Amino acid sequence: MPSLIVEPLNTQHFIMDRDDRKRNKNMLSLEDTQQWSQSLERLLDSKYGLATFRSFLKSEYSDENIEFWLTCEDYKKIKSSFRMSSRAKKIYEQFIKAESPKEINIDYHTREQIKRNVKTPTMHCFDDAQKIVYGLMERDSYPRFLRSDIYRTLLESLATEATKG
Questions:
Q1: Mean pLDDT across the chain
Q2: Rounded to 10 degrees, what is the CA torsion of 154, 72, 130, 139?
Q3: pLDDT at 16
């Protein structure tokens, strides 16, 4: 009979752990961190994954791609045509224009197309460049991140915590 009493307590303890995790989304778990290695999209969808990836890119002095990609994501949310026009020009000056402070690596044709698009901007005027930059991150920065000391150390420390807890 004692095993009948213990079993519900263990189940209840498990349910409380899951509820605690749902309530406290600010905690970083080993499982979440391991999922970052499944795809760049998973990594960028995670608040902590994105922050860790950005830190990694900054440490390599190659954060212009993620900054551009994030800026484009914010740009797409703009509703006001005046704000869109103003923001499109800033994005062009900061990331697209040759010799700009955070110039991204895109081909001449795409750069020229955006130069024309910015004159009458739409929410999609940076889409081609954003796809190129995403592809570059997926093929280059993301695999380097997965092999980096930053990511490996984080996984190890979370794994150690998980075995202690």
A1: 87
A2: 0
A3: 34
